[in-house]
Design brief:
Blueprint lengths: L1 E5 L2 H18 L4 E4 L6 H14 L7 E4 L1 E3 L10 H8 L11 E2 L8 H15 L4 E4 L21 E4 L2 H11 L8 E4 L2 H5 L3 E6 L5 H9 L17 E6 L8
Parallel strand pairs: 1-10, 2-3, 2-6, 3-5, 6-9, 9-10
Antiparallel strand pairs: 4-8, 7-8
Helix pairs in contact: 1-2
The structure holds fructose -6-phosphate (F6R).
Amino acid sequence: MFITVTRSYDEMSQRAALLVAAHVIVKPDTVLGLPTGSTPLGMYRELVRMRRETNLGFSRVATFNLDEYVGLPPDDPQSYDFFMRTNFTDHVNLRRDRVFIPDGRARDLAAECRRYEKLIERRGPIDLFVLGIGQNGHIGFNEPSHALQAETHVETLSARTRRANARFFGSVSKVPRRAITMGMGTIMKAREIILLAGSKEKAEAIKRAVKGPVTPAVPASVLQLHPACRMFIDSSAASGLG
Ligand code: F6R
């Protein structure tokens, strides 16, 4: 695991965007794995700026999102589909048929998980995966548990995750109880991974992910086993590393 501590959230976002841009320039048909949430917002803003000001081209890029809430339609402002369109994909020249997000409204969720996993297998491997991290060490919606599932699956969200995400929904009771998420095995197949963390609320999770044992109780700790995983974290998120 390589760790770069940045002075600020903005520097973290710029570095992440530069790395994504470098991949896209070197390999125009790059396959990206992408997260949602507060953390990557600055990176997406920077990529949109680069597209506008430097003509960075995404026309051959494919993107796979990590996860989606079960039950939310794509036009729900809290769905990850909506998030991606408003913050990124509508503002760069990505082709709509190369943007992939699990369908949280599928009738048969198990079949949808299998379909998504197959799609990643067919279009992959993912060249660069950008990840955030939950306060409890979750990656995607792989929640701390006694065992991790390798492939895309339906996960029941922990009380802590639902509390953390209540800020987007107005109240905890409105946060969906389940989500489709890629499994840690799916994520670990990526050629290269960067994990972003830019606030002090993430310091404990970062410490356990980097310094603790590799354990399903801290899903992010599994990234220690990846041969090309880098963290871009600001100094507040790095404060537990000593
Ligand atoms: C989102 C995702 C989650 C978030 C994590 C941190 O697609 O997979 O694992 O990365 O919950 O969220 P923020 O960035 O909002 O703190």
